[in-house]
Design goal:
This protein has helices at 3-33, 39-49, 57-68, 73-95, 101-115. The chain is an all-alpha fold.
Length: 116
């Protein structure tokens, strides 16, 4: 058999698996923190999760399109900027003097999900 092709296909599978796993972790963190986030921030974070697609189909399609567009820096840069913008908003909540410990915990968990 062609070992190189098999390794390539397995690596692609791992990329897809990782992207779906990361999106689900962020979605779980977002769902747990919705009660302490503004609607605007929720919308930004939902966009990073892949929208409102509960079936996961859109995330899978995006994963496949990323594989076919390897080296596309524009998409990666755009996602980086979206994450950076969302984290800036999270930092503002953390820096607010009236933010309680329960909110701080949710924000830190959400920020960690964005980091990973």
């Amino acid at each position: 058999g062609n070992t190189g092709a098999l390794i390539y296909e397995f690596e692609n599978y791992l990329v897809i698996l990782q992207s779906v796993h990361d999106a689900l972790d962020l979605k779980t963190s977002l769902d747990a923190a919705r009660w302490c986030l503004s609607g605007d921030l929720q919308h930004k974070l939902q966009g990073l999760c892949g929208g409102d697609d509960s079936s996961g189909l859109i995330r899978k399609q995006r994963s496949f399109s990323r594989l076919s567009n390897v080296g596309g820096a524009d998409g990666g840069h755009q996602k980086f900027m979206q994450v950076s913008d969302a984290r800036k908003d999270l930092l503002a909540i953390l820096n607010h003097q009236g933010t309680g410990p329960d909110v701080i915990r949710q924000i830190l968990l959400l920020d960690y999900s964005l980091e990973t």
